Amino acid sequence: MSTLVIAEHDNSSLKPATLNAVAAAQAMGAEIAILVAGANCAAVGEQAAAVAGVSRVLVADNPAYEHQLAENVSLLIAEVAAGFDNIVAPATSNCKNTMPRVAALLDVSQISEILSVESADTFTRPIYAGNVIATVQSTDAKKVITVRATAFDAVAAEGGSATIEAVPAVHDSGLSTFISEEVAVSDRPELTAAPVVVSGGRGMQNGENFKLLEGIADKLGAAIGASRAAVDAGFVPNDMQVGQTGKIVAPDLYIAVGISGAIQHLAGMKDSKVIVAINKDEDAPIFQVADYGLVADLFEALPELEAKL
Amino acid sequence: MKVLVAVKRVVDYNVKVRAKGDGTDVDLNNVKMAINPFCEIAVEEAVRLKEAGVATEVIAVSVGAKPCQEQIRTALALGADRGIHVEAEGRLEPLVIAKLLKGVVDKEEPQLVILGKQSIDGDNNQTGQMLGALANMPQGTFASEIKVEGDKLNVIREVDGGLQTLSLSLPAIVTTDLRLNEPRYASLPNIMKAKKKQLDVYTPEDLGVSVTSHVSQLKVEPPAERKAGIKVEDVAQLVDKLKNEAKVIS
Question: Where, in this chain's numbering, is FAD bound (chain A) (predicted)?
Fold first, then answer.
């Protein structure tokens, strides 16, 4: 058995979610290779080769793959997949975009966002916003799988010594063109990888008030998130959204401020180790999952919390 | 141009779904059903394209058992011109749905297919991308803005780090994210009118697709429950607990 793991990267560095996907691949008990598809991405190939437990790294370095266009990358992965039993990728926005195309090209089903590997063909995954966990069995000879990164402990980024091979295949479908990208620049850790997340909800009242979270986030080395209600109200951009349709996080500490706790939000954060809720409504459902609940006006509690940290 | 929009019948998003006691499936008895929220956004976008004079016809398609005609009627009440129901029973995997939609695409030859990015029951997030591969069309997934410019479609996409803009050749696939638009409510006169709109029914055999399952669901169970913790009196106690009990801050 052999497993191909798709690397998540930005052409210069390997993203941590890849290490969680490798952990899932290890649980499948197969020999592991990583595919790095990108442009001028040799550095990523070297980082991938250092990942513990990986035997081969395949690098497809071509301008056609620079922006991870699904049309091109899926053709590449489907070709490289010929030599593997499992194709595994972290459930990042890139891989969610590309992998179903790969599965369709291979005429197999995809198993999305697995939480555990029960056996070579059996996995668990969340359905209905995580209110139900399904155990599913695949009959496909070749399996295409995405991995919920928070459900698998990352393997070590160092210690491996995989061979690096170039993949010369060039697939440029000509169907899509990259125009531009607006990426939020922040000194804070990435939301999905941060050890602490401080999130604001509708109770923040406006975008300006999110500044109240910044001081706390700075002191805790935290990322800042938001509920869908706060995003819909236009307080903050959508890439901060935590929930069923946003980002899935599982930090050591999650502080929910002015968030009522709709099931769609809980789906994105209820696997956090410790949850703190600050809300003035003592009946808010968020308190049902919080380890520590503080019923208080957030506009009084936040400055006090920042001062005491 | 012709726009095809896919809609799925799902449990209403306000319903908290539970696993049955015997673990065989989720309990959907007497549960309110609705159009998947992302599909509703897809319908709205298609109707807006028609109102803007970009789309000439909007066709709503749904794959599933007979009752999903209710959701097609909802789409027709929201402004779609006619409906197509692909009648198929049982648990349908995204790959099968994508193949059936490909059959409809071959018949109708739309320039644009708009789907929701995921359905809130299976949470798979696959069908649009699979249809893209099967129909060899480009895709703009997780779209927060789309604009037709000549024979191209510009799509702004929600990605992990922010926003990405792509230019796609037409025909193309779009899957909707939450911020693409805010769907309207169907008015009573439009609900009445929708009952008279054309609705064609196909079987998988009509479309030359065999409905085979690649994945079986062995069991369903509730997730590990999180117990509610304690209420703290004030900020000082909260900080103390986090430092000395949970030991998550220093």
Answer: 202, 227-228, 241-245, 258-265, 279
